[in-house]
Amino acid sequence: MSITYTEEKRFTQQQVQELFLSVGWVSGQYPSRLYKALQNSSTVITAWDGDRLVGLARVLDDTELVAYMHYVLVCPDCHGQGIARALVERVKEKY
After folding, report:
1. If you write DSSP's letter for every residue of 11-66 in order, what string do you get?
2. For residues 41 and 12, is the Cβ–Cβ distance under 8 A?
3. Distance between CA 51 and CA 90 in Å, rounded?
């Protein structure tokens, strides 16, 4: 498995819904609202296994002093591969 990371918001509504539901997060039950929220977030860094969205980190910031990492999630069948750590490192590099 070769994981790639991007800050481009190229995910679909269905991809984020599947990821959020895979970890049992209720926000996955509101796919259009979730998708809109992510599109309007300051930073979203995603992890991909080919064309499959396997991880995501979301950051909200004020553009000056504060950045809040709202969440980091990785699909359960990809746990233990360092994806969450890589997402957090990319957030740290940016901020």
Report:
1. --HHHHHHHHHHTT-GGGG-HHHHHHHHHTSSEEEEEEETTEEEEEEEEEE-SSS-
2. no
3. 20
Give residue 66's identity as a one-letter amino acid code: V
Whole-prediction pTM: 0.94
Report which of 91, 93, 57 is spatially closest to residue 72, judged by C-alpha positions. 57
Rounded Cα distance, 22 and 7, in Å: 21
pLDDT single digits (tens) 15-66: 999 999 999 999 999 999 999 999 999 999 999 999 999 999 999 999 899 9
Cβ-based neighbour number of residue 34 at 10 Å: 19
- Other CB atoms within a 10 A radius of the CB of residue 57 amount to 25
